Amino acid sequence: MNRRRFVSASIGAAGALAIAGRVRGDGPPDDSDPTSLIPTMMAATAKMPIESRPLADGLHLVYGPGGNIAVLDGPDGLTIVDAGLPNRAADTFEVVKRAGGKPVVRLINTHWHFDHAGGNEAFGRAGAAILATPATRRRLSTEQYTEIFKMKSPASPPAALPVVTLDEAEVHVGPETLRIKSVPPAHTDGDLFVHFTKHDVIHTGDLFSNGFYPNIDASSLGWIGGMVAAADVLLKLAGPSTRIIPGHGPVATRDDLARYRTMLATVHDRLAKLHDAGKTLREAIDARPTADLDAEWADGFFTGGMFTRVAYDGLVKHRAGAGKAS
């Protein structure tokens, strides 16, 4: 399966399908407003297949609409990383159960967004203990407003909330050790990644989108400099044989992650110069700082203009909060 076809089964490509005309230039080339993406995507993902495939003995990948899900078979049941979309929770639950063949006893949320934690309630009601960072629990516990999408997310019901919060931990599942570690604000203020040490597999959540521009949630204190720093942490952990499960897109290598880090750092540096020069958001978008990158990276969720909007917004807010240039 090539990358374009794989991504077409993900939420990233659902957005790409919705905005394909604009990406290809059939519509306004300066379109940078992503507010219509989420409703369009939710409709587009309603009937997309959810599939699974083995990554290694006892470890499966579940993919399709929503974020990628890792499924680890253990002596006490299944441990999974992320839970998919709310409108596909029942389907996700069944695919995960078939992939692992056991009840889910443990669910780790990489962050709070609905395409990764939307299935929490189904797994929580079935008895899974949900683990996440304290910031993720806080955001799931209260209504959230994501400014870039003009979208309200209601508080999650009690069964969907993490019952264990942590910033760093080791979880032992049979012979496998899961090393869980949070990072400073990057995609959100509650991101964590999971390293399956025996299998040498890392699930990054949305710290990494393989092959296309990521969403960066400034309303949750995310910012592009934090994304670069998180990529550095992951690159130090990954070796030449490490397989990396991104939040969206196909399973990746360290080289894929390194290319992604280079793109993020390039955009960060360009946006920082624009901000130093006093450019407004509109002026930054009109400067087209991603123009030479779009052919490679604007093949998924965001156009270059949309990515500039979310990344510049987050950088400006982070600098205002930090009180200094970053």
TrEMBL record:
One of its GO terms (molecular function) is beta-lactamase activity. Its EC number is 3.5.2.6. Residues 66-248 form the Metallo-beta-lactamase domain. Coiled coil: none annotated. GO terms for biological process: antibiotic catabolic process. This is Beta-lactamase. InterPro entries: Metallo-B-lactamas, NDM-1-like, RibonucZ/Hydroxyglut_hydro. Belongs to the metallo-beta-lactamase superfamily. Class-B beta-lactamase family. It comes from Aquisphaera giovannonii. PANTHER family: ACYL-COENZYME A THIOESTERASE MBLAC2, METALLO-BETA-LACTAMASE DOMAIN-CONTAINING. Keywords: Hydrolase.
